[in-house]
Amino acid sequence: MTKEELQKIAREVRKDIVKMIYDAGSGHPAGSLGMADLVTALYFAILNHDPKNPNWDERDRLFLSNGHICPVVYSAMQRAGYFPSSELKKLRKLGSSLQGHPERTKLAGIESTSGPLGEGLAQAAGYALSARMDEKHFRVYVVCSDGEHDEGNHWEAVMFANKYKLSNLTLFVDRNQIQSDGPTEEIMPLNPLKEKYQAFGWNALEIDGHDFEEIINAVNNARSKYQKPTVIICNVIAGKGVSFMEDNYKWHAKKISKEELDLALKELK
Amino acid sequence: MIVKEEKLTTKIFSKDLEEKPTRDGFGGGIVEAAEKNKDIVALTADLKDSTRLTEFANKFPERFFDVGVAEQALVTIASGIANYGKIPFVTSFAVFSPGRNWEQIRTSICLNNVPVKIVGTHAGLNVGADGATHQSLEDISLMRVLPNMVVISPCDSEEARKATIEAAKTKEPTYIRFTRAKFPVITTQKTPFKIGRAETLWHSKSPQVAIIATGPMVYEALKAAKELDKKGIETLVVNCHTIKPLDIRLILNAAKITGALVTVEEHQIIGGLGSAVSETLSKNFPFPIEFVGVKDTFGESGTKDQLFKKHGLTKEGIIEATKNVIARKSS
After folding, report:
1. Of B101, B102, B118, B109, which is closest to residue B167 (Cα–Cα)?
2. Which residue of B has its CA nearest to A27?
3. Chain A residues touching chain B at CB-CB below 8 Å
4. A190: which of A205, A253, B137, B259 is 20 to 30 A away, CA to CA?
5. What dotted CATH number matches A3-267?
6. CATH 3.30.450.20 fits B199-282, yes or no
7. C-alpha span between A161 and A222 (Å, rounded)
8. What is the pLDDT of residue B331?
9. pTM recorded for the entire structure
10. For B83, which of A95, A127, A152 is closest by C-beta distance?
11. CATH for B20-184?
């Protein structure tokens, strides 16, 4: 798939996100929009998967640790063919397979239930360790937020992945610089993040998370590494594509009004 | 008198009754289970020897993982391992796991519904000298409240061995609590054990009281029954090793026969066996009580009003419960 084709899909994903959150009456727009390019790259250029056979044994696994940005994953999954588009309107509604935070037992293709922060990397590390014990060749990917680096559970898993040299594990950090209460560097400074991972024994890369070439090159670099897990710190703009949401932590969790929806869709044309 | 079919040790009331910590039974049981099933793995949070994983680690080094002093990682890593398809046993002291990592257990194990087996040793007052910080008295309560979780409290090291082997065969998230201290080994290899089925160990001719006990308190209950029998007070003693799912049928039957119950546990009554039994009895026999609340399930997306309605947390739900309790009172 060409860069232009991926960009086109990511634009549609962004439209889905604002429509879904508007329909639901609540949700997390900023993080979801910021990760639209990376998640599009995952589902359309990186993951070895089969939407018609979501439990295929050899599939690559994707763990979404920051479950609150699930609208971006739901949209990409739908566009990849996991379920019909009519489902998107049911986000956060009673009886829906698209729960407000994703649940493994409710939607085929969701590898694990998530939302409470700091737990995704550890689960993926356990999964990657098991896969290696059985000499499986699929890869295990994790997406986590920058804010959830405040959680001790995450760093416990960072140490574990280094100890057991989980080179089949790749972590994408949604480095959008915001969290619930404000900028990450004000709430709990994380920098220098790349150097922290290096000090913990990881192969650490830092890229522009909106650049498809950089994303795919970084994933290839991770695949080529032996004996080390890889972290790809994706510098992204929270709310990317909708000017009034960009870089604004107040859009971390916020409902979208009809006027705001119309404005956002106009910008995403 | 002792129920013969239970095949308890013949030395049960003698002075040379063997004593072992129930954690020893876990250590033996996991090795037995792992010899039969290569998918069984074990993780510990820097407490390999204290939680009796040394033999397992020596026999199966490729299936043993030490995560360091990190109980939240312990259970979340195990969640991933179970999600993959293996059966991980995770060990620590009960105050730390499931004490410190409750939310991780709730979300990544119970809501995810993956078969992690949580082993909490040093449960109860029997920890002794280490003091209150290390005496877990809340673990049954913490685990019992979680949907999908099975909770087992073995009475001795032999039952602990069987509980470990049986838990390794199921697909359910499971919590098993074990003692640090030595307790009499009263059951034998032939004593029946099935998860979810309580056993009546003592049955006088016409019992007036049923004593429902769990963990090492079962032996104390048997000693009490013997003493009471001499004084002409006849009892039943039930070994309630599985707290969840509770053996409702057996407990109700015991209540109907005797009309009076005593629960015994090395754990807070709030949320523990006492709570579990009284919830069951007050719902069924003999005092009519109805409960309004979320009934052993998780929530889901929806509006507040939709969800309150679905779970009966409404004026209508309360009226219905009130009518039901009145009807039962007059019946």
Report:
1. B118
2. B301
3. 63, 91-96, 98-100, 103-105, 111-116, 118-119, 122-131, 133, 152-153, 156-157, 159-160, 164
4. A253
5. 3.40.50.970
6. no
7. 14
8. 65
9. 0.94
10. A127
11. 3.40.50.970
